[in-house]
Design the sequence.
């Protein structure tokens, strides 16, 4: 059931109606149960195996969180009692022979050293439980990736669950004691296909609050869904046909065609992925549940650092917070940092950071798929980031020239970053590393401009009217982006809501008719799945 | 505090760290800077900042970072 299918629209519409039909006094207790039933039903419709895999993640995460939480509470109580009564607690908990016992069973009070030892043992136990949970779930994810099993959205819900368990271990918030509520957080149907990878603390309050119907919120949500459907059906699914033709026939379409493929793929992937995320966020908003943003005009980035702050934001955040930082500040890395600094000076102190950067980007590549092209894609990102980092002093000196602040130079930086990312991303759209390299080389060796001028672009599976539709769709997209930046509003629909009713009706009517008339869909036509659901 | 300011200024000489209160929100400091700062603090103050404490609130200003160091020293 794709997000843009007629069945899904019916399903989401029915959930929305039932969600708000619940009387106010039962909203808090019933709404989340309805969402859970809907989510399980939705996921079950994609296959029973999918549901079984997800159940394993829910059960292991729930049990591990419960055990870790118990250990944290025990330690907190013991520390509190020690503060109250000096070093030795009279009640609370006590360690005995390496076991953690409730104090009513304890044989002795704790000295300062014993308390320290108790904390260390407690931490070790928590670490063991956390590691086991991570191993099971990342192990399952690894099996899925290596064997090529098609478990829908597995990368997203495993990452969401693991962020929850790591945060529990960090003591960020108490665990969810109701297994069904945790099951809803992990399986919430708008997030299941392609994220965003939300965190528990940012979703939980609204998910279980009991949300009253607010016309404005629901209208904003539905408008965002429409915007997402427009991006997907009018732009991505149409231009995607040309991308498939270009990327599946690299021998035939090298040179200038390769540049076209990279550019088309960038636009298609953005319209596809961000369109899907718009639908997700829109449904969430209509239900009164805010969902984290995943894109912030990524093609306006001036460098690769900015690009990764604007593209697939929640994935970048996950790797940064749960892999990059913990690895960078772990004791062995800090020791290595001290050693390399003493040995090699200022250059040396960056060695551990670069090791961690390489590991992080390698993992990001693997997350997308266990194949050489994704690994090369990940490592290339890491390499460009490290080179940029090394060149920073040079940039700083260069940026002192006044022309670097000018509009044309900013445009040049945006253009440069767009194409840099297009080249890196091409490892993800061609079949293999060797093919991608040969396609890159063809840009220098055999540009094929003559072929393009004589044959045109009509052989790529699209006719002239398709290109006009895509062009118009992109013009709408760029206009929306321009309005957003010019007015500095959070969302264009917020800005539009302040305009007159006829104008609003005209805009949303045009968007709806644009989808109906120019969208790629219909009976007998198999709408293309979202690209990111394969991850 | 002066020692901390020195670490920060060495990293970004062009920033007024005494006044800036949105170093993370304004993307003045990126993840590489943060890790470099954590390493320098570890050396200068003998304080290990755990990953859980690497959040915008703690790194948005020199004052909040100093407060974090003090709390970890206790």
Sequence:
């Amino acid at each position: 059931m794709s997000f843009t299918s007629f069945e899904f629209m019916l399903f989401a519409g029915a959930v929305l109606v039932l969600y708000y039909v619940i009387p106010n006094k039962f909203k808090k207790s019933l709404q989340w149960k309805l969402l859970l039933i809907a989510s399980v039903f939705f996921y079950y419709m994609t296959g029973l195996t999918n549901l079984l895999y997800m159940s394993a993640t829910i059960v292991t995460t729930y049990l591990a969180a419960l055990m870790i939480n118990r250990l944290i509470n025990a330690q907190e109580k013991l520390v509190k009692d020690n503060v109250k009564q000096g070093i030795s607690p009279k009640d609370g908990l006590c360690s005995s022979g390496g076991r953690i016992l409730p104090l009513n069973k304890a044989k002795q009070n704790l000295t300062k050293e014993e308390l320290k030892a108790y904390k260390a043992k407690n931490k070790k136990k928590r670490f063991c439980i956390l590691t086991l949970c991570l191993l099971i779930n990342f192990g399952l994810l690894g099996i899925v990736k290596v064997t090529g099993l098609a478990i829908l959205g597995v990368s997203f819900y495993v990452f969401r669950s693991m962020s929850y368990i790591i945060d529990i271990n960090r003591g960020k918030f108490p665990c969810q004691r109701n297994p069904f509520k945790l099951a809803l957080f992990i399986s919430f149907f708008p997030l299941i296909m392609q994220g965003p990878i939300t965190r528990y603390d940012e979703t939980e309050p609204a998910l279980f609050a009991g949300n009253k119907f607010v016309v404005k919120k629901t209208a904003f949500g539905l408008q965002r869904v429409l915007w997402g459907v427009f991006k997907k059906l009018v732009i991505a699914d149409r231009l995607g046909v040309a991308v498939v033709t270009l990327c599946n026939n690299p021998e035939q379409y090298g040179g200038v065609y390769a540049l076209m493929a990279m550019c088309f793929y960038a636009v298609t992937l953005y319209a596809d992925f961000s369109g899907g995320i718009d639908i997700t966020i829109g449904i969430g908003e209509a239900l009164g549940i805010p969902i984290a943003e995943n894109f912030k005009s990524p093609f306006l980035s001036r460098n690769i650092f900015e690009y990764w702050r604007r593209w697939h934001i929640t994935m970048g955040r996950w790797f940064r917070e749960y892999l990059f930082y913990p690895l960078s500040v772990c004791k062995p890395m800090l020791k290595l940092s001290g050693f390399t600094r003493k040995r090699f000076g200022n250059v040396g102190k960056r060695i551990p950071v670069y090791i961690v950067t390489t590991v992080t980007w390698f993992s990001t590549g693997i997350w997308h798929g266990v194949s050489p092209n994704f690994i090369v894609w990940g490592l290339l990102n890491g390499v460009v980031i490290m080179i940029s980092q090394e060149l920073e002093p040079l940039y700083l000196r260069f940026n002192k020239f006044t022309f670097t602040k000018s509009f044309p130079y900013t445009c040049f930086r945006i253009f440069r970053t767009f194409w840099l990312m297009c080249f890196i991303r091409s490892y993800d759209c061609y079949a293999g590393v060797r093919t991608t390299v040969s396609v890159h080389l063809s840009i220098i060796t055999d540009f094929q401009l003559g072929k393009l001028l004589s044959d045109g672009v009509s052989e790529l599976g699209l006719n002239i009217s398709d290109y006009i539709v895509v062009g118009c769709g992109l013009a709408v997209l760029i206009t929306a982006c321009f309005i957003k930046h010019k007015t500095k509003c959070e969302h264009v629909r917020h800005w539009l809501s302040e305009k007159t009713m006829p104008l609003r009706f005209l805009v949303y009517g045009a968007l709806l008719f644009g989808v109906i008339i120019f969208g790629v869909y219909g009976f007998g036509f198999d709408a293309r799945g979202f690209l990111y659901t394969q991850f | 505090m002066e020692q901390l300011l020195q670490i920060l200024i060495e990293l970004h000489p062009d920033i007024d760290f005494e006044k800036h209160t949105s170093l993370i929100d304004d993307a003045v400091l990126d993840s590489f800077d943060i890790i470099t700062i954590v390493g320098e603090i570890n050396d200068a103050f003998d304080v290990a900042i755990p990953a859980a404490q690497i959040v915008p609130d703690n790194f948005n200003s020199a004052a909040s970072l100093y407060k974090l160091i003090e709390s970890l020293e206790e």
